[in-house]
Amino acid sequence: MTTPTAFTRAQLDWLPWLEPLAADEMTERHMASLVDAARVKSPYFRLLARDPDALEARTRTDKDIFYNADAGLPRAERELAAAATSRFNGCLYCASVHARHAATYSKREADVDRLLDAGVTADLGERWNAIVAASVALTATPSAFGPEHVDRLRRAGLDDLAIADVIHAAAFFNWANRLMLSLGEPAATAKP
Amino acid sequence: MRTDADVIDALVGITPGSPLDAIRARRPEARAHAQATYRALFAPESPGNVSAQERFAVGAFVAGVHGATAIADCYAERLAESGASAALKEAIDAAVKEARTNGPYGRYPAGPLSREDTAGSSYRVGAAIRRTLGPRLAAAFEHTHMLVFHPRDAAPAALQALLDAGWSTTDIVTLSQIVAFLSFQIRVIVGLRTLAGRP
Known about the structure:
Number of helices of chain A: 9
CATH class of the domain at 73-183 in chain A: Mainly Alpha
Shape of chain A: globular
Oligomer: heterodimer
CATH architecture of the domain at 73-183 in chain A: Up-down Bundle
Structural class of chain B: mainly alpha
């Protein structure tokens, strides 16, 4: 295992800095808080399961923002907003997962790699540029998100439900990035 | 701000039947569970070792350093209801003033990303404020500042500082969720309010 030093679409591991719950000490409530039982294999989710009510509500919020297929922003672009937010905050682990999803759903691997390599000012075409710029402005503290971002997203063809999806996807990764960055670290499997 | 009223709706000013009400209704699980997270973190059924006063103090600090005045007022109001002294409220206001900056900044692991390293300070609570906050809340505020403004500087030593100040592993998970969740809630409110202001 080595510490990754660049943004990548490759699969990374995540190693906790605090002790997760052991699978065999988890109660029914802890297990239910994982929502997907398979997540018991993940040290990240077993660590967050120490506060099960917060974890379960977090996960259900996450799933609706990214997987709800009722109109709004296409999945690829929700993932783009997540990847751009993670790139700007500097979360290599989150960026790897969501860059991978953005590339899978958009088939625009080269543009996704440009975002990872050059950063959030990379030119990805106007529609993607508008989504990245809005995500970045909302991620800044204090927020730099203003009416000009709404106008630019509308000019790029987004309706208000899609704009609300950009807002939620970027906002959610301000939640996720902070947990991933501060409770453990990414690890790359060394190439043989 | 009551725990049973939807906080995001209240702070954006979303009224039943408005365009944003209709938009939020299209993502009903996200709407319900953003509120459920708020309840889990600020009105928990089993609060464990993290007191209501600590939860609202951190809430007021996070919103304050985001420059989100109306949201900060709302957490400060709940803090007062939890029985906090006026001195604690003043100490939080003073901490917000000395801690405010612009993020995100921080360092990357040494390598090609080092050229993107951005300098910025780590917050240390001033002596006078520390006396009012006490060691446990002071450690929480220092950690919170890192999470809000420079989360990529996170390291095991930061967690050790919390453990040394009396936060258990489970308490640290709850504290981290409070700060991280508020980073979400504040941005949803700011974003939707901006959208509502641009009909």
